[in-house]
Structures are given as structure tokens and as C-alpha cells.
Amino acid sequence: MTLTVPAERLRQFIADAFRAVGMPDTDARLVAELMAEADLYGADGHGVFRVPHYVRRIRAGGVNLKPNLRVARERPGMALVDGDNGMGHLVMRFATRLAVEKARASGVAWVGVRMSNHAGPALLYVRMAAAAGMCGLYFCVGNANHLAPWGGLELLLSTNPIAVAIPTLDEPMVVLDMATTVAAFGKIKTYAQAGKPMPAGWMIDREGRPLTDAKRANDGLLLPLGGMEAGYKGYGLALVLGLLAGCLNDAAMGRDVIDFNADDSSVTNTGHAIVAIDPAAFGDPTEFRRRVDRVVHDLRGSERLPGVERVTVPGERSIEKHSARYAAGVPIPPPLKATLDKVAGELGIAALEA
Amino acid sequence: MTLTVPAERLRQFIADAFRAVGMPDTDARLVAELMAEADLYGADGHGVFRVPHYVRRIRAGGVNLKPNLRVARERPGMALVDGDNGMGHLVMRFATRLAVEKARASGVAWVGVRMSNHAGPALLYVRMAAAAGMCGLYFCVGNANHLAPWGGLELLLSTNPIAVAIPTLDEPMVVLDMATTVAAFGKIKTYAQAGKPMPAGWMIDREGRPLTDAKRANDGLLLPLGGMEAGYKGYGLALVLGLLAGCLNDAAMGRDVIDFNADDSSVTNTGHAIVAIDPAAFGDPTEFRRRVDRVVHDLRGSERLPGVERVTVPGERSIEKHSARYAAGVPIPPPLKATLDKVAGELGIAALEA
């Protein structure tokens, strides 16, 4: 039976785990807060699921637990944050707050980040900007290269995501958070575990033929967004987002990217970019939200294809999941529970319980 | 036989046409310069091909030939430009130059645009920013709604494009310019003209089944980027880019979008956004270009799938086309020649010749 855990208990558990490996209390609470939010929003691969991995990296010395987060460069429309190899969540929280603060003065602020680490789901940071009334944009260089250039065989790119949040008035906030591949690598792993064949169009083999056997995923290539017909577009997106989040900030990109699944101790020098846009700089911010509401309302009310029950906007379902899980708790499937129990035993902290 | 016209003659012809319908000489030259660049880069649907359409709109009073381009709002990191319903090319040229100038001072500058018009291919403006040493980002709201929300039937969105240019040192400049659908509507029109079936995955019919008969395109729906497997991603991109380029600037978006193919006289209130990012604000700009070069070099040198002759980066082929057409001239297929001759006759200007 699947255990269901209240968000507050999940936060405690995550914070306990990080304190046990030496993270300062305040930082452990902040990271736990963001990771539990990931679980609440349904980004299951980015919440408590990551505790064993992060703990392993911290114990291997791969993450700096006492980072000196600093603004390395600054102008009115931008800043460059050096994360000093701290936990990505702390670095991105710092960068997002800085972007919002600067945007209040300058209208728009772009904050680049280097020397960071994996920071969980992109939606967290654009939502943070949107909660402060801003439009938020986020790009990053992913922490493992799963993507080849279009027509190529070498895994030189990550599935670099893009996220955008747009505040609304009465309609659900618009929050896009997408990898630039057809399917995320994590999703393919769940198919492999379940022994299910993948749909054609997710991966190709090294001859360029569709690959549907998820267990052979490591022999194949993810198709960039656009698939067989237009994958050069997803390739192009992954590339330019990576250049902006990586090369611009002197963070890792291309061959320099460390596969953080296979390597626990090397500094990843993860790059991100967060942009905050203050609608008040462009006009009346309430009128702006009203215009967004009108578009969202029209889309949600659209006539539908046969068999489609609902037309949604990006972010709508994750908000619903957040409400449901906040009320009923976060499900922890038995294999995850077993992994977390093992970590809890090793760290001498209380195991998760209902 | 296809006529081939030197770029300089193409520019003259375009400027002649616009002068003949009352556009001031300087403006006619500027628009002609940008439209001929579109042809040189191979964006054939956005160059001289558009002269008859633009001339029709100008004669119908749909475009203001004496616009007062002005900065309606400004802060260090942003500006909002009001195009006063001028030609989109002039408005976007003004906005891009402003973004570059502001970015030199503020590091990054985001310029929103309202009250503009169709401005040709996105690549023109991000290349303009990159020629000034900046990274350039561009979004806009397209000038006709060809896209439904994911699962929906109503054409509430345009194929809102995104373009990004990243300057390099020795490698070809990286220039992505893509619509957020699998196939652009213009491409489908060329299939219909040629009587060729479309690949499955470009469009669906109103029952949700693949549509491959290009002549029935008007009964179908474009699939957003991602196609049947992941089209919700392309839908999400088209939406957020439209909200940022449209709603944020109080420009048309959603139901308000005027179909400029069907309506020659209504003010389109086209919205764009151009962002200039000065690499010098982030560090040594030459080192930045060197890092980009390294990534581009690795991608272009990647081992290849069987049957693939070359791995390219976005923008590489359009640069080659530019060189080739600059040297040999721009091909004008006979049906286009006939249309342009007709317009030349009506306007009393010299027809295009070799």
C-alpha cells in the first residue's frame, strides 16, 4: 500500500536528512521547503525522491555546504550570481529574489548563475517570481547530457528546460515548465521499471530507427521536441537555452557537463538564468492580469476535439495537484519508501510514516 | 525559367513599390533593405513575396505611413515602444536599436512593442542585435490565428515564433528562428500548390485524425511543436510567448488578433518583444564567444547517424544561403514573377528583370 505523507512531515524528513549530513539548519529548512513544494506540484522526480542522491553527493564532497553566495557582476538590468558550489535550491532562491528586487527598480532584470547545482523543477523559481507579481522566465543547463545534435550520435546536450510563469487575476496562473525533448529521461526510466513499451517518437536507436523498448534506453537517443518531423527545432531550443544559461555565465555546457548521476564528487558548475519582468513597468499591472485572464478564459472554454474532456492552460493541473496533495498528503510509492527508509537508517533520522 | 535577381535590384524594386504607394523615401529604403535580407537568408515567404500583400494593406489604409515611433515607457532594463501602426520593419528596427543601446548601459534590456505590424522574419532582428555583439531574443504574436489550444478546436493562437541569436568568434553565428508549430502554415500552402501530400504529424482534422491532404488544410488544425506525442509543449510555448509579446504590451493576443490575410484595413496592433543581452556585462565578451565556438565546433563535428552528411547548428544553412544568393542573385519563381509584374504595372514602376 502506498503511504501518504502530509507536506509538513515531508519537509521535516527532508530537513532532518540534510541536517544529518551537516547542512546548516536554516539552509536545510529552505531546501526542504522547496523540495516538498516540488512534490506538492506533482514534480515527483524532483522532490523527496532526490534525497538519497543529494545526500550521496553531499557526503562525497560534491556540494559546498557553507557557500558564499555572491553577486559577481551587476548592472541595472542584470546580475551574475556565483553560487560557490552551494545547493542549487539555495542559489536559485537567492538569484530569483535578486531578479525580483532588481526588476522592481529596472522594470526587467536578468540574473545569470554559475557555480550552482541541480535545483529541482524549474516551475519553483518562475512561480516565486510570479508570486511577487512578476512574469518569470527560467532556463538552465541540465545535469547530464542525454541529447545529440540533430542528425548526430554524440550526447553533447542536456534536455535543457525552459519555464515561464505569467500572473493572472482570477484564472489559474500560467506556468509552463518543459524539457526540450519529446519525453523527459525520468519518464522513460519509469517505463523501463514498469516493463512498458514507449510510444514511437520518444527515442531513436543509433541507426535512426524508432526505439520503443524502454529497457534499451541507454542504447538510444532522446528525440528533441518536434520528434522525427521537426526535432531540429527542439535541438535548436536546447542549444540556445544552454548557451544563454551556460556559456554566458561561464558555467558548464556541452562536453563540460558533469553527469551528476554517475559522478558524485566533481563540481558541476551548473548554470541557470532567471528573468523577472515587472508588468507595472509596462502599464497598469491589474489591467495586464485582466488581459491574461481573458485569453486564458477563452482557451479553457474552447470547443473541444471529440473525446477531450477539458482544455487546460499550462500549470493548471499542477495547481490542482498541489491543492489535492496539500489536503490529502503526498503519496510515497513502496519502492521510494524503501529507499528513503534505508537513507533514514544510515543517517539515524526518523523514517517517514503516515 | 526562374529569373535570378541581384540583391541590389531587389531592394530597388521593393523601395520603388513602397514609394509608389506614398511611403517616405528613407522608410521605403529601410524596409526594402530588410525585406531583401529576408530573401538573401532564404526566408522566401518574408521577402519580395510580401510586396503585393503589404501594398494592398497600405492602399487600404491598414498601415500608417507617417508613424510617430515613440518610447511610451522606459526604465533602465526595459522600454515599451508604441509603433503608431507603422510598418513592422521600421518599428522593429527602432525597437532593436533601442534594446541594443540600452543593453550597453544596463547589461540587459527588454523592449516590448505594441501598435506594430508584420515585420518579416524574426531572424532579422536577432541578427541585428548579434551584429552589435549582443545575444538577441525575439518573440511576437503572429498575424493570424492558425493554432488551437491542445485538445481544442478553436483557432485562438498564432504560431508565435521565437528567435535567438548568439554571436560567435570563428564558427557560424547561432541563429534559431522557429514557429511553435511542427510545420509553418506557409510551408503547407506550398504543398497544396504542388499537390503533394503532407507528412502525417503536421496537421489533424477536426476529429483529431492525421490530415495529409494539403488542399484540405483550411479544414484542419496545425499541430503545435511536439506533434501528437507532445504538442502540449508547443501549445504552451505559443501561449506564453504570445502573452509576453502581446498582453504585456497591450497588443493584440488571442481573439483580438486580426487575420491580416483576410482583413486589409483594420489596425492589427501587433506585439513584439526584443531582448538584447550584452555579454560584456557578464565577463570578457571574447572569452564568451570562444566558449560558444567550442560548443558549436563540438556539435558540428559530432559523429553522425547513418545517411546524415552533416550536422549543423541553427542559422548555419541560412548564412550559406545568404552568401550564395548575394553572389548569384535571388531566384524569383515564375508564379511570383507574374504577381510582381502585375503589381509593378499597377504602380507604374519598372518590373523586375535579370
Could you outline the blueprint of secondary structure elements for this entry?
2 copies of one chain form a homodimer.
Chain A: E1 3-5, H1 7-20, H2 25-40, H3 51-59, E2 70-75, E3 78-82, H4 88-106, E4 108-116, H5 123-131, E5 135-140, E6 162-166, E7 174-178, H6 185-194, E8 203-204, E9 210-211, E10 221-222, H7 227-245, E11 270-277, H8 279-282, H9 285-300, H10 316-328, E12 330-332, H11 334-347
Parallel strand pairs in A: 3-4
Antiparallel strand pairs in A: 1-12, 2-3, 4-11, 5-6, 5-11, 6-7, 8-9, 8-10
Which short descriptors sum up this protein?
homodimer; 354 residues; 16% strand; alpha+beta; Wheat Germ Agglutinin (Isolectin 2), domain 1; Hypothetical Oxidoreductase Yiak, Chain: A, domain 1; 7-stranded mixed sheet; globular; 3-stranded antiparallel sheet; 3 domains
Broad CATH class of the largest domain in chain A: Alpha Beta
Proportion of beta-strand residues of chain A: 15-25%
CATH superfamily of the largest domain in chain A: Malate/L-lactate/L-sulpholactate dehydrogenase, NADPH binding domain
Our count of domains of chain A comes out at: 3
Radius of gyration of chain A: 20 Å
CATH architecture of the largest domain in chain A: 2-Layer Sandwich
Report helical residue fraction of chain A. Answer: 40-55%
Q: How many helices of chain A in DSSP terms? A: 11
Q: How can the largest sheet of chain A be summarized? A: 7 strands, mixed
Q: Tell me, what's the shape of chain A?
A: globular
Strand order of the largest sheet of chain A: 2-3-4-11-5-6-7
Structural class of chain A: alpha+beta
Q: Please state the average pLDDT score of chain A.
A: 96
Distance between the termini of chain A: 12 Å
Could you state the order of secondary-structure elements of chain A as H and E? EHHHEEHEHEEEHEEEHEHHHEH
Oligomeric state, counting identical vs distinct chains: homodimer
Number of strands of chain A: 12
Question: Which fold name fills CATH's third level, the topology of the largest domain in chain A?
Answer: Ribosomal Protein S8, Chain: A, domain 1
